[in-house]
Every structure is written in C-alpha cells, then in structure tokens.
C-alpha cells in the first residue's frame, strides 16, 4: 500500500475525477474541456482550487510544481508573480487562488460558491480578503517571525480570530448551510492552523475563546470533500516544523 504522501505527489501529474458526492448532471456541465491546475501538495492556495473544482464536479489534471525549481510552464502561465496556483482552462491561464475561485464559480454553474445576493457576495469577498490580508499574515508572523515579536503577533492572531468568531456565530458555515467561497478561503484556519499549532507546540484557536469558530473547524474538517482534498496531517506538521526551525535559525 502506498504511503499517504505518495498519493498526493506521485509523479508530476495526476488525473482528478469528479467527486462521487457530485450529481451526474453537475458532471455533465463540465463538458469535454481541458482543465489543468499547477500547484503543490502542501499549498493551502492550490488546495482551495482543488476543493472548488471537486464541489463543481470538474475533472482536472494536477501538475505538482517544485517551488524551488519552477517549471517553464508555470513561468509562462504566471510570468508576473511566478507563483502557484495557476488554473489553465482550454489553454487560458488564470492565476491567484481567490480570482480562480471566482472564475470557477462563473464558468461552471451548479454548486454555488458565492451567494446570489449582491450584498452577500460583496461581504463574502470582504471576509475572504480579510482572511488572506489579516489572518494569514498574522499567523505567518506568529509562526515564523522573530521571537521578540511573537507575543505581539499572537495577540494579532487572537484579535483576527475574534472577528471571524463573530462572523460565524449562528451559522454552520460562513456560506450558510453549505461550504462556500469564504469557507474554502478559510482553509488556513480550518485545516492548516491545527498543523501549525502542533508544529509550534502552542495553541492559537481554542474552544474557550472561540467556541463558534472551533465548532466550524469541526464541521469543516468533517465535510467529505474537505477531508478528501487536504494533505496528510502528519506530513504537513513535519513540513511546518522544518520551516519554523529554519526561520528561527535565520532570525
């Protein structure tokens, strides 16, 4: 039996078929289209795109990128930022995970990622931007920043998680009763943060301080498509431990 990590990174390419949880009619909407995702097994950003494609029932070809030795195709398709993820749809590249999610939602109907109401759509975009600009930035600083700045960074993480705590109150998911755009973007909190906490040996999100957000994490990580499309926890923890040790050595 193959090691769990090999399932995610075997070779440079893997073919990903629609989830068994998506209806046949949703799969037919994908048509005979060429969809390729350039990403990495450990990237929270490319995982967002994979979850969205699975929710939509879209088959796609996944290209595992070596972040330290980027392929000519990646540099061709994203010459400005030179980063993953990049979705290539019928030869046309789309970079940046949140932009890709919106493109997927507009291109393939069926399972909605964003709300239909204009105000709700605007607020979903607001919270998604908040997660990347504020939550993610503070988590990275608390994890990898200089030791003498970590206490302040942890306080910033707590403040940002408190904002999300208020937003998720009374809801099963940020998107309502089903996983939506904000939930997908919030995978840094829903899945990756737990691995970072284990690697650090320090909690950031607790049931006592963030009961609603804590419950959302439980709902999120137990959603079938989410469970199927995140990397192995133990490998992720090992990766973060290595990165944290390297950051502390350089600081």
TrEMBL record:
<dbReference type="InterPro" id="IPR045074">
    <property type="entry name" value="GST_C_Tau"/>
</dbReference>
<dbReference type="InterPro" id="IPR036282">
    <property type="entry name" value="Glutathione-S-Trfase_C_sf"/>
</dbReference>
<dbReference type="InterPro" id="IPR045073">
    <property type="entry name" value="Omega/Tau-like"/>
</dbReference>
<dbReference type="InterPro" id="IPR004046">
    <property type="entry name" value="GST_C"/>
</dbReference>
<keyword id="KW-0808">Transferase</keyword>
<dbReference type="Pfam" id="PF00043">
    <property type="entry name" value="GST_C"/>
</dbReference>
<dbReference type="InterPro" id="IPR040079">
    <property type="entry name" value="Glutathione_S-Trfase"/>
</dbReference>
<dbReference type="InterPro" id="IPR010987">
    <property type="entry name" value="Glutathione-S-Trfase_C-like"/>
</dbReference>
<dbReference type="GO" id="GO:0006749">
    <property type="term" value="P:glutathione metabolic process"/>
</dbReference>
<dbReference type="InterPro" id="IPR004045">
    <property type="entry name" value="Glutathione_S-Trfase_N"/>
</dbReference>
<comment type="similarity">
    <text>Belongs to the GST superfamily.</text>
</comment>
<feature type="domain" description="GST C-terminal">
    <location>
        <begin position="117"/>
        <end position="240"/>
    </location>
</feature>
<dbReference type="GO" id="GO:0005737">
    <property type="term" value="C:cytoplasm"/>
</dbReference>
<dbReference type="InterPro" id="IPR036249">
    <property type="entry name" value="Thioredoxin-like_sf"/>
</dbReference>
<feature type="domain" description="GST N-terminal">
    <location>
        <begin position="33"/>
        <end position="112"/>
    </location>
</feature>
<protein>
    <recommendedName>
        <fullName>glutathione transferase</fullName>
        <ecNumber>2.5.1.18</ecNumber>
    </recommendedName>
</protein>
<dbReference type="GO" id="GO:0004364">
    <property type="term" value="F:glutathione transferase activity"/>
</dbReference>
<dbReference type="Pfam" id="PF02798">
    <property type="entry name" value="GST_N"/>
</dbReference>
């Amino acid at each position: 039996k193959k090691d769990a990590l090999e399932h995610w990174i075997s070779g440079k390419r893997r073919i990903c078929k629609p989830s068994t949880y998506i209806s046949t009619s949703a799969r037919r909407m994908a048509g005979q289209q060429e969809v390729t995702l350039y990403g990495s097994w450990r990237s929270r950003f490319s995982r967002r795109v994979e979850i969205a494609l699975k929710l939509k029932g879209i088959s796609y070809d996944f290209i595992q990128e070596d972040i330290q030795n980027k392929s000519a195709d990646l540099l061709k398709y994203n010459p400005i930022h030179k980063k993953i993820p990049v979705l290539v749809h019928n030869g046309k590249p789309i970079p940046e995970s949140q932009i890709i999610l919106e493109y997927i939602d507009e291109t393939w109907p069926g399972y909605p990622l964003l709300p239909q109401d204009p105000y709700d759509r605007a607020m979903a975009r607001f919270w998604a931007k908040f997660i990347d600009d504020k939550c993610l930035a503070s988590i990275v600083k608390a994890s990898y920043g200089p030791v003498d700045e970590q206490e302040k960074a942890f306080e910033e993480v707590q403040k940002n998680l408190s904002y999300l705590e208020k937003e998720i109150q009374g809801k099963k998911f940020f998107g309502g009763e089903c996983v939506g755009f904000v939930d997908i973007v919030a995978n840094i909190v829903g899945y990756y943060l737990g691995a970072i906490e284990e690697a650090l040996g320090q909690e950031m999100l607790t049931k006592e301080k963030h009961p609603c957000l804590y419950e959302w994490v439980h709902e999120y990580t137990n959603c079938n498509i989410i469970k199927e499309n995140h990397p192995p926890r133990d490998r992720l923890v090992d990766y973060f431990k290595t990165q944290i040790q390297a950051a502390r050595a350089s600081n």
